[in-house]
Amino acid sequence: MMITINKKKKKPTLGYALFTLGALVIYIIAALAVFKIPIIIALFASWLVLTPFALRLGYTIAEVEGTVYEMLKSGVSVFALLLSIGCMVAVWLCAGTIPTLTYWGLSLVTPQMFLVIAFLFCTIVSIATGSSWGTMSTAGVAMLGVGLGLGIHPAIVVGAAVSGAHVGNSLSPTADNCLLAASTSKVDLMVLVKQNAKIILPAVVITTILYMFYGFTYIDTALQPDTINSIMGDLNHLMKLSPFTLLPLIVIVGLLIFKQPALTSILVGNLVGLLIAVLYQGFSVADVGKFMADGFVIATGNQYLDPILNRGGITSMLSLVSMIIASLGMGGILKGTQILDVIVESFSKVITSRFGLTTATTMGCVLCLAVVSTNYFSIILNCTLLTPLFVKLGYKPENATRIINNLSACLAPFVPWGLAGLFVTATFNINVISVIPFMFFNIIASVLSVLYGYFGITMTKIEASNGVDINMHDVSTDANSQK
Fold first, then answer.
1. I need a labelling partner for 385 at 20 to 30 A (CA). Which of 120, 203, 224, 427 fits?
2. pLDDT over threshold 80, residue 336
3. Nearest to 169 by CA among 411, 397, 433, 400
4. Tens of pLDDT, residues 346-390
């Protein structure tokens, strides 16, 4: 019988945690900028870089691997969703869904107004479904096809789609971000949504104005009418275009609105699309199966139309899935060894003002997103550690939850190796770094969240029963008594 002796783990000191994180940052910068190593290899190799730091804290190599595998469990649903989306894009193409939307968009929408329409359309879908990823993979993909047909740079189109898709993360009562933030901070869900609206609604208005201004000022490279007519003619010749081909999109969005899981909704939509591709468009089952695996392929002879139609497939997602695995593994080691927890916890020891609260919350969200790759971890950790500090200084907990929810959701796509950033890259087949400058809503909502905190705008205070602000000492005592 083998006896296993568990070596006692040491909690890292703040200095050790910062040193470890600093070493990781230096390694990644050197790997990418100096040695020109592909980011996916650099991320996988980071597991080896972090292992000695974990061993010094008393972890065994097997336990370090365990932290990696534990974090990878959270990504299984993401892997399945990405692969199903790769299939979905291919199915929508051969079923005629994207070609029909592109044809109608070219005939009805002007290039100057397109960005506003794309943003507002994705906003409506995201509020209705409560899913930013579901919105991007359905309404966003559809808008990209129209935008490419109009000759608008894909980064700008994707920026508008991503912006609209993230509105629902803060305004929809069914959004998982809102639900998680409210439950972690023990804040009423509708109270949080109302608090979010104070920032999100102004951000939507400003974003709409900016996209309209950008459309009329800078969209000057749109295709000429003759070229657009040529694209429309080729589309009409290649496939049957009719409202019937939109059924896969309608099915998926409908299922999402009725709160069905995103993966199930997309798989059902894929089945509907497959039937349309076979029975209506005339492809064989074998053809559709190959398209779902390798992407839709068709030679139109039209240089503008080929990039719209030749996309999708499971293989288009494999490199991104690999990068997510590498990124999650790195975050798993940092989380499992408490290195990140110690850094965030240290914020609470130096916070004595609203300025400090807002700064710590912002830094906490950015740090979590950068090293653990998922906004869910950012929401859980920051709501748990920072909400009591808001209460201690006399502010209602929903103030903390609002900042954490909005920053975690809106800033997540800004991290190229994070789950949200990789999802944008995979879904739209574009480097997310090129999209970031055009995520107007995400930028504006993040800035407003921080500014509202610094200047105390709509920051509600805890009040006594007589309507007078509670003394800070009393609030601190009350907060501590509830722990």
1. 203
2. yes
3. 411
4. 776 778 788 988 998 999 899 888 877 778 878 877 887 788 888
Q: How far apart are CA 124 and CA 121, in angstroms?
A: 5
Q: Is 269 exposed, middle or buried (0-12, 13-18, 19+ CB in 10 A)?
A: buried
The closest alpha carbon to 273, from 134, 91, 89, 93, belongs to 91
- Please list, in sequence order, all residues whose beta carbon lies within 8 angstroms of the beta carbon of residue 185, skipping any fewer than 6 positions away: 383, 387, 397, 398, 400, 401, 404
Which amino acid type is present at position 251?
Answer: V
Q: Which residue do the tokens 């959004």 mark? A: 175
pTM over 0.90: no
The answer to whether 341 and 335 have CB atoms below 8 angstroms apart is yes
At 3, is the pLDDT very low, low, confident or very high (cuts 50, 70, 90)? very low
Task: Report the distance separating Cα 164 and Cα 172, nearest Å.
Answer: 12
Residue 410 CA to residue 415 CA, distance in Å, equals 11
Q: What is the pLDDT of residues 407-444, one digit of tens each?
A: 999 999 999 888 889 889 988 989 999 999 999 999 99
The tokens for 214 are: 């950008």
What are phi and psi for residue 349, nearest 5 degrees? -80, -10
Tokens of 375: 């906004």
* Runs of H (alpha helix) within 172-188: 176-185
Tell me how far apart the alpha carbons of residues 382 and 362 are, in angstroms, rounded to a whole number: 10
**Please, which residues have CB within 8 angstroms of residue 121's CB and are 6 or more apart in sequence?**
139, 143, 164
CA distance 32 to 370: 16
**pLDDT (tens digit, 9 = 90+) per residue, 89-100?**
899 999 999 889
Give the pLDDT score at 474.
Answer: 38
Angle of helix 315-336 relative to helix 419-428, nearest 10 degrees, comes to 180
| Residue in 231, 232, 240 with CA at minimum distance from that of residue 303 | 231
**DSSP state, residue 154:** H
CA distance 463 to 184: 22
CA–CA distance, 292 with 13 (Å, rounded to integer):
50
Find where tokens 């796509």 sit.
413
124, 208 Cβ separation under 8 angstroms? no
pLDDT at 221 over 60: no
